[in-house]
Design brief:
The chain has about 240 residues and is of the alpha+beta class. About 35% of the residues lie in helices and about 10% in strands. It has a domain of about 130 residues: Aspartate Aminotransferase, domain 1. The strands form 2 sheets. The protein has a 4-stranded antiparallel β-sheet, with helices on one face. Strands 1-2 form a two-stranded parallel sheet.
């Protein structure tokens, strides 16, 4: 056992035989004090459970890749524990970033997001809850989208992603992506955020309904584009992500 409390190659197992059904996983980049605390917890849990406990330290990308599998089975479940006696469970929906405004009175889309929570694809909270999904108007509805709101969606997408968006068929906004693969990946991931999306060649289609308002639907469209595009650029496009 190393000084930080984590097992290393060559260490003797705590018990002979099977490793048991309890696995404790920690980010390998976590502070040494945190990893040592996890080792102490694993040892205490093994004593209490009467079976071996596996402690694994893995990179953050591998942690993210595990999250979808944690709830894939019908009888699977997860629970998040927060520090402090009054800590509340994690919200099931992503918290909303506060609106920032420019001096001209228009939304400062580029300044609203400096950090990003995990995508729903990787176990994070979806942007919208299942009770309030964002859907495009029914085909043949005939109602025109609000041009001012469409303009804000286009501006927000441009400021946060650098991608060009334009009105498509009634009720839809088309975002030109860098490739078909990019459009398909963004489409699939955005759907998991409870926002409707479609893909046509290298264009990602997002809803642009006639009754959309700035603080609700418009902000949602810009948010999911900023969030998913950030992951695409940081983890997928360069081929550095194993998820």
């Amino acid at each position: 056992m190393a000084p930080d409390g984590l097992p290393r190659e060559g260490d003797s197992p705590r018990a002979e035989g099977a490793e048991g059904g309890i696995v404790l996983v920690v980010d390998v980049a976590a502070p040494a004090s945190v990893r040592a605390a996890c080792a102490e917890l694993a040892a205490a849990l093994a004593d209490r459970a009467g079976e071996p406990v596996t402690l694994a330290a893995i990179p953050d990308c591998c942690l993210a890749a595990m999250r979808p599998a944690l709830t894939r089975a019908e009888d699977a479940w997860t629970e998040v524990f927060w520090p402090g006696p009054a800590a509340a469970p994690r919200s099931q929906v992503m918290s909303s970033a506060p609106f920032l405004w420019r001096e001209d009175g228009r939304p400062d889309w580029a300044g609203m997001w400096t950090t990003f929570c995990d995508l729903a694809l990787y176990g994070g909270p979806p942007h919208r809850g299942p009770e309030s999904p964002l859907r495009a108007p029914p085909a043949g509805d005939g109602a025109a989208s609000d041009l001012a709101m469409v303009g804000e969606m286009r501006r927000g997408i441009w400021e946060t992603t650098g991608l060009y968006a334009e009105p498509a068929e009634p009720g839809w906004l088309a975002v030109t992506c860098e490739s078909r693969s990019m459009a398909a990946w963004l489409c699939a991931v955005i759907i998991l955020e409870n926002v409707e999306a479609r893909v046509e060649e290298d264009r990602l289609l997002l809803p642009a309904g006639p009754a959309y308002v700035l603080a609700d639907e418009v902000k949602s469209i810009v948010t999911v584009m900023a969030k998913t595009h950030h992951y695409w650029q940081a983890h997928i496009a360069g081929g550095t992500d194993s998820r």
